[in-house]
Amino acid sequence: MANQLTLPTLDKLRSSVAPDVNVQAVASQWFSAFSKAMESKNTTAVTDLLVDDVFWRDMLALTWDFRTFQSISSVKTFLSDQLPLFSLSSFKLKEDLVELQRPYPDIAWIQAFFDFETTVGIASGVLRLVPLANGSWKAHTVFTNLENLKGFPEQNGPRRNYEPNHGKWAAKRAREIECVDDEPSVVVIGGGQSGLDVAARLKMLGMKTLVVEKNERIGDNWRKRYAALCLHDPVWYDHMPYIPFPVSWPVYTPALKLADWLESYAHSMELDVWTSTTVVSVIPGTKGKKWTVTVQRADGKERTFEVNHVVFALGFGSGMGRVPDIPGQDDFHGQILHSSQHNLATDHSGKKVVVVGACTSAHDICADYVDNGVDVTMVQRSPSYIMSTKEGMPRLMSIFWEGGPPTDVADRINASYPNSFLKLIHKRITKDIANADKELLEGLRKRGFKTTLGDDDSGFLLMAWNKAGGYYLDVGASQMIIDGKIKLKSDGPISRFTQTGLLFEDGSTLDADVVLFATGYADSRNVYRTLLPESLHDKLYPIWGLDKEGELNSVWREVGGRSKDSELNGIWSMMGNLALCRFHSKHIALQIKSYEEGIFGTRYQ
Known about the structure:
Blueprint: H1 10-13, H2 23-39, H3 43-47, E1 50-59, E2 66-70, H4 72-82, E3 89-104, E4 107-117, E5 121-131, E6 137-149, H5 169-177, E7 186-189, H6 193-204, E8 209-212, H7 220-223, H8 255-268, E9 272-274, E10 278-284, E11 291-296, E12 302-307, E13 309-312, E14 335-338, E15 352-356, H9 360-371, E16 375-379, E17 385-388, H10 389-396, H11 407-415, H12 419-436, H13 438-446, H14 461-467, E18 471-474, H15 477-482, E19 487-489, E20 494-497, E21 501-504, E22 509-511, E23 514-517, H16 525-531, E24 571-573, H17 578-597
Parallel strand pairs: 1-6, 7-8, 7-13, 8-9, 13-24, 14-23, 15-16, 15-23, 16-19, 17-18
Antiparallel strand pairs: 1-2, 3-4, 4-5, 5-6, 10-11, 11-12, 20-21, 21-22
Helix pairs in contact: 6-17, 10-12
């Protein structure tokens, strides 16, 4: 169905936009009819305000889930099922956030923000109206999002603690961290950005949360990766909840700098974190709670917690590297390692290094080897999407850039585009970026580097959503390939290891002292299986990757499916880059708080 979708161009709509169109009047008139129809639960009246190929994306507000409905018929079914379950009120158009947008000369829509309330929640929305041939405007996309729970506001701003503390803070914090007086309601496994974000969100909702981190320090999940690691997302995209980066922060954050920031964040937010602590097991609870979590601290002592909620926040593949099963590894006389085990390029000074892989980590590591005078060859097994950050980021990240809207606004704009619709837009943007990168891409192809423009030429969007890889956002390594500084072998599959290197299926060989696999990470479910009873392993749903509606399978939700009777209820998945963790950590926190307060509804199926 997704392949049949098209953008709402003016030609397709057989319409135009008058130069003097009164945007506020159009939005107000449409929204007045929409709010009345929603409050009266008149599904027909609502759908009369939508185009036939409408998208409606909901995050918890009306479905208690992450759902995208495409087409007037699917939206009508959704509304017919769900509107009777909610009492909707207080619809308000945010007039300061209404504007006519022209992303391309043949596309025009009025984008507007609105607020409303449900039976238990405070919600927001984003809509886009397109012009029709008869002069009317109808919605092409509608986004609804749960923002807060009635009666349970975040404890910040005017609700912060006003009491002075004279000399008691340090002792109080020590007791809180050690869980002396209060047991946690939630255990978060992993103290990277995803774990810290959700812990901060839960803390603001008044929920005692313990973060368990196996490393010695918060931030070590970044410190202990390869030294050349640097974020390829811009700073405006990467802020964390409640404490944004300073205005002097560099656009692209070095990993070591981010590691120190995470450590300071945990301290400033007063998060309860146990470092040098491993989770031994997560098993069904027997004392009135859903789960029994046993942890072991650095001194070998164990402690058990009874909780209803366990959040797995361990990143893509939980740090477990995926290494292809290539025959002959025992015959090889050199060193074999995964990129997750790599640290310094100078560890291999004077040696010949082969890096298997041609995406982000592979490029970063190869460039670092070149910078440190190490002989390195990249082995490319399949085409990669290449985009320079210089040309791509300002086009893709315009709302997360200098002078862009506030982060909260940008997050909601970003989330308001269903992925299947965003794919259509990205096909155009990808073409624009490729034209701007023409010299770079032609140079790579001349060297034998295999490039792709992604699924249906839509760039790296679906690559990221489906497999969290397959691309490189160029910050210099591509030119090293073009210049021959990074050697390249891309003419055939690997057959096996030899004593001195690699043999390829075409009979060619490549000598190496070190073979480094930059080949991604294992199935995210593997770490769940190491901690949960074996009887629950086959109950785990896929976590990353898109479902048929274009939503991620289980991320930011429970991992055992949508049934209230799932044996894995209370086991949550929290993962993603800094931007995704910032936005969706609130969604996990709201779901957990809803469960604990007895107001969580039923996930719409």
